[in-house]
Amino acid sequence: SKPLAVLVPGISEKIITPATMYNDEPTTFNDGSPDGYSPTNNENYIGEITVRRAVESSQNIPFVKMMEQITPKKSIKYMKKMGITSLQDEDESLMLALGGLKKGITPLEMAGAYATIANDGTYIEPTFYTKIENDKGKTVLKSEQKKTKVFSPEVAYVLKQMLKQPVEGEHGTAQI
Description:
The mean pLDDT is 91. By secondary structure, the chain is α+β, with helices and mostly antiparallel strands. The two termini are 21 Å apart. Helix content is 37%, strand content 12%. The protein is built from seven helices and six strands.
């Protein structure tokens, strides 16, 4: 959920761009706890990198640094607009950047939220049906899908380009 929790609000609010630099190094964040929050990377730390590179190889530290600037409160506001209903008060923490959610997100809500990017920034409530007809072909029930503009088509374009990086980038973690 890094793209939903961090990239969507960060780019929409003009806090980050694909070229914004972060230092990917061991970091302890002040989260109000006595010891702080010290996430680690799956791989090595690689020093000064762009947001695009952090997305490409899924480096954790830069995403938590981005969340610190965006704030978990603002991130949650965006996630709710994209149909995510399972968020709890305890989720309002820096761990949100790395998907540390109390209850998680259903696959349907996750798909709906990611579809917001594909739909150029408009959230369309997922449904299991569009309409039901009787045996004469008359519509007896039609799905009313809620639509909400969450971010601009320009933001969606930037997100689409960045989300190709794990597959297409030189250091991608999802190469085929």
